[in-house]
Every structure is written in C-alpha cells, then in structure tokens.
Fold this sequence. Notes:
The protein is α+β, with helices and mostly antiparallel strands and about 375 residues long.
Amino acid sequence: MAWNEGNGKNPWGNRPDQTPPDLDEVVKNLQKKVTSLFGGGGRGGRPGSSKQGAAGLWFFALIGLVLWGLSGVYTVDAPERGVVLRFGEYSESTMPGLRWHMPWPIETVEKVNVAQVNRFDYKNQMLTADENIVYIEVQVQYRRADAQAYLFNVQFADETLKQVSESAIREVVGKSTAESILGLGRDAIVQDGKLLMQETLSQYKAGIEIQSVNLVKAQPPPEVQAAVDDATKAREDEQRLRLEAQAYANDILPKAEGEAAKRSEDAQAYKARVVNDAEGEASRFTQLLAEYEKAPEVTRERLYLESVESVYANSSKVLLDAEGSGNLIYLPVDKLIEQGARGGLRDSQSGAGPTGAQGAREDRDLSGRRTRESR
C-alpha cells in the first residue's frame, strides 16, 4: 500500500488537502524567537523578555570566554621546543608536553624542531690558490640547536646558513692548491670548512649547529679532465710503489736485523771459546812447567810419547814390532784400521778405554796372537 493510501495523511502528518509550510514564514518565526531571547521583543513583547535577553547574552559571553581560553592549549612534541611570544616579544621557552598560553592576540607560540637534521647542497666552480678552477659540490647537514636564537637573532637563519657555507668553502678552497683539493687534501678542506662555518654562525648567534660537511665532488673543468686523470693515475702509481717499497723494507729489515744479531752472538760465543781455550792452555802449560822443573827427563819422555801418539792416531798406517816379516801377508790391515777407528769412536763417546800408543800395542798383541793361532 502506498504511503498516501489508507490513512489519508502524508509523511509530514498533514491532510492531503494541506500544502507544506512556507520557508519564509519559518525564517520569520525563528527571527522573532531570537529577538525575544535577547530582549528585542518590541512593543508586543512580554514584560520579562528584557531580563531573559540579558541572561542569554551573558550565557553566550561565558561560552565564548571558555572557548577563547581553551584556544590557548597547545602540545609540544618530543623533538620540539615551544617559544611563547607575548605581543610579538619573547616571553619563555617550553619543553615537550601539554602546555597553555594566553590565547591570541595576547600570546602566540612558535614551535621549532631542535632534533631534526636538515641538509642543503651547494655546488659551484671556485678559484684555488694556484689560480686553477675546480668544480666543488658540498653537502651540509645541520640542526636548529637553540630555538630562541634561531627565531630572534637572525631574520632568515636558513638563508644566512647557506651564505655562510658558501663563503667558508670559497675561503678554504681559495687557500688550497688544486692538487691538494683533487688529491689528499679533501679531508682538510672539509674539516676547515666546518670549523669556519660554525665559528661564523656562533658569532651571529644564529642558534644553528653544523653536524657534518661532506665534499661530494671535487673535479677540474671538463676541458682539462683528461690531463688531470693522467696526473691522478701517476700519483696513484707513486703511492702504490711507495707502499710496495715500504712493505719490502718491512719484510727485509727484520730478517737483516735478526741475522746481524745472530752473527753478533756467534762472534761473542767464538770469542768466549777462544779466550777460554787460551786460558786453559796457559794454565796447562804453567802446570806442565812446574812438573818439568821437578822431573825434566820423565816429563820430556812423556811429552814425546804423547806427541807420537797424537801423530799416529791420525795416520792410516799400521806399525808392528815383530821379528821377521813372513807372516805379514796374513794380517788384515783394513780390518785393523776399521777396528781402531771404531774403538776410537767408542772411546770418544764413553770417555774411557785405551787410546794412542796403548791401543796400538793392544792391536799389535791381538794381531800377534792371531798370527800365532794361524800358524
């Protein structure tokens, strides 16, 4: 069933023969109600309408005052600092958190991010101390460390920073040679430039702290790039050869020093041995002289026998004291020499046993017995 069937009413609760209310009439009725609320009921108003209008005015005024006071509530984030201005003049700085200030137009708040690291790039051609031209590209990173100084001491702090950076880089490059800028002097340029920037900003009290200065690119003009590349390659070869020579020196010098120390120790040992031998020989001769003075004949005979013994001990011949020579062909001379050599070796190792003439005599007796046994 349709909405206009059955009960004979439309959705607005009117009868079918009534039309919707006029919009102009609705507006007029609303204006009358507002006028009567503020005491503007005119001659046809009720006697208490003026009091009701005053009460409504105070109510709206109180609402407006509360809203105006709430407009002074603000929040400062963790990396920020709030700067309160009273009629445009600095009043105080506020830390992070929920804060309140007297609403506009009495006080306003400027927020400055003191933790964010900002950067800007600068690139241009510059003249060096040796009247060469180099292309420089620099990247500067900074932060706004002091919010009050950043807002009040310098009018355009960021633009001032760019100008100060350009001036500092030009001054440092103007005092350096092209070879140092393109070679090993890049770090010095960065350090000197950063120091000069910070000193100038501190004098201005700009409230800006330089975090780092990076020399992104330093190269000569394109017209001389090929020649500079050749010079750079030559410098790199020089540095490489220098490092290789240093490595060779580091390898050979310790060996030479060790060999020198070893030879010095060997010489000291040889010196000590020779001196000790000489002292021992001198002491032995002194003792022998004392014995010789006591018994010259015996000592002379003893020295003779020891000399003959030392000579025969190093000889490859065998001397026999025997009558006749018929049985000499049966003597194993090579075996006797070998046996004597083994006996001497055993004596030298054990420090005991027959030596010299005594050993020769024992060999002779042994050979004699063997000869007799063969007969």
